[in-house]
Amino acid sequence: MISVRKLTKEFKIPVKPPGMKGAIRHLIRGEYKVKVAVESVDFSIEQGEAVAYIGPNGAGKSTTIKMLTGILKPTSGEILVNGIDPQRHRIQNAKNIGVVFGQRTQLWWDIPVEESFALLKNIYEVPDAVYNENLKLFNEIFGLSEFIGRSARKLSLGQRMRADLAAALLHNPSTVFLDEPTIGLDIGTKEAMRELIQRINREKGVTIILTSHDLKDVEDICRRIIVIDGGRIICDKEISQLTKEYAMDRGLQITLLDMQKELPARLLGQEGISYAAMEDAHTLEIHFKPEMYTAFEIVEEVNKYARIQDFRLREPSIERMIEKIYRSGEQSA
Ligand SMILES: Nc1ncnc2c1ncn2[C@@H]1O[C@H](COP(=O)(O)OP(=O)(O)O)[C@@H](O)[C@H]1O
Ligand SMILES: [Mg+2]
Hints:
Elements: E1 2-14, H1 19-29, E2 32-45, E3 50-54, H2 61-68, E4 76-81, H3 90-96, E5 97-101, H4 113-123, H5 128-142, H6 157-169, E6 175-179, H7 187-204, E7 207-211, H8 215-221, E8 224-229, E9 232-238, H9 239-247, E10 250-259, H10 265-269, E11 273-280, E12 283-288, H11 295-303, E13 306-314, H12 318-332
Parallel strand pairs: 3-7, 3-8, 5-6, 6-7
Antiparallel strand pairs: 1-2, 1-4, 8-9, 10-12, 10-13, 11-12
The structure holds adenosine-5'-diphosphate and magnesium ion.
Magnesium ion binds near residues 61 and 62.
């Protein structure tokens, strides 16, 4: 279990006025400005959850992950990861967790990947049986054997990320932190990464904390999202709950063969219909409250004014939901 209370991280950024004089003044006075990257963040995550930690660039995601993994020291606040303060007990914490940063490798650059793995096996004291079983699984999903004999520097990005994820999971950590693990990867490698992450979560009950800009990662892997913006949490919900809330606003896309009469303003401005507009000459997009109308009633009404060729329900997409969350976050900020 992870619990975070009033977690805050401030960075002191040196303010250097331009030129030599400025540099000297900075040396003497040491002027800084403070950047609050993470501000009074609270959440707790139960063992076995799969949580997406998302937000725009610079929101404070990586800073949070670095504090949770013990790499950065919080300015204030409290973190417990499986009962351990990750900064104070970094080594003990490392035994429980796996970490992948998409932007940089954790592997030794110049030695064959299999030797990196063997080193990690020793460091983490992974029993032979566990090690072999894990390698078998990673091989199955990742085809590791094709490149495990090469050094990390000679791998393609896709191979390296597969090796990195495998390395992070070798010691059966109970909690895994993944910061943009699929960034820049081809579709095939992304799929393989998702499959392995999903399996260790579903089959082994490993806790997953994932940041990603690829919402397909989020959709496939996570059941809960925490949204951070400007260092503050603006939303923390089960995805199923969000879907329910946004499904309140059911969407229907209707393709018209031809317009018999002008669609009445009444239909477009009616209570319970939150949005209705012609997207183009043939496509009508309508959002309505499902407790007030059935989709059939909407179609029937439109059918009085136009010949309908086709229609389909629009499920609330995760993109749209997150867009709305960002927007409402801006309003309340
Ligand atoms: N070492 C650092 N020194 C100064 N500012 C930093 C440092 N690391 C991150 N920041 C700033 O803190 C904010 C949050 O950064 P980060 O956590 O990397 O965002 P994200 O991962 O959500 O894109 C950004 O404004 C970033 O510029
Ligand atoms: Mg980041």
